[in-house]
Write a structure and sequence with these properties.
This protein has 218 residues and is an alpha/beta fold. The chain has a single domain, classed as Rossmann fold, CATH 3.40.50. The protein is built from 6 helices and 14 strands. Strands 2-1-3-4-14-13-12-9 form an 8-stranded mixed beta sheet, with helices on both faces. It has a 4-stranded mixed beta sheet with strand order 6-5-7-11, with helices on one face. Strand 1, helix 1 and strand 2 form a beta-alpha-beta unit. It is globular.
Amino acid sequence: MSSVAVIDYGMGNLHSIAKALQHAVPAATVICTSDRDAILNADRIVFPGVGAIRDCMNALNQAGLSEVVQKAARLKPFLGICLGMQALLTESEENGGTAGLGVFSGRVVRFPDHLQDADGNTLKIPHMGWNQVHQTPHPLWHNIPQNSRFYFVHSYYAQPEDASVVAATADYPEAFACAIAEDNVFAVQFHPEKSQAAGLQLLKNFLNWDGQVLVAND
C-alpha cells in the first residue's frame, strides 16, 4: 500500500488526521513530518491547518516548507484541509491581507456580518457545525451521496478566480466554494477527519486516488 505524508508545520491536529487516514485505509503508511525529502518522496500528501493564515504562512516560511508545498502540489495526489485549503490561494484578506501560496488563483474572504437564513434567523460567525455539501463530479466523491453533511469551523472562505475549479459548494446562506480541485490537487474547507462516515470515505478515496480526474462521480 502507498505512503501518505501529513505535513507538520506546527498548525493542525495532526494526530486526528493521521488516525482518520489510518482508519480509512489500515494498510496505508501514514507519517507526520516536516522533512522535505519525506514529504516529496511520499506517494500522497496531506496539507492540514487550523488557525490564522498569517501564522500559517509564517510557520511554513520558518520551517522552509512553502516551496515544498508548492512543489508537492505539482507532483503528487495532494489534499488540503481547512486552513490548508485557504493557504493554497493567492491571498487572504485575513490579518489585514496575507499572501498565500498561489497554487490556485483567488482570494480568501470573510463571511459578512449580520448574515440571516431564509427564516430571518441570525447566522453566527464562525460557520461552525454540520452542513450539506453539494458536489460536482470528481473521483474523491466516490460512494459519498450528494448533499452529505460535513463538519465545518471557519470564518473565511475561498473565492477562486476560475469557477471551474470549484468541486463543491455549501450554503451559509449563499453558496460558497467548500472544495476546489485541479489536476492532482483536491482541497476542502471542512474537516473530513471530523465528518464521520462521509469524511472517512473521502479520505479512503484520496488514499486510493492516482491524481487523475477522468472518473466522474457515480
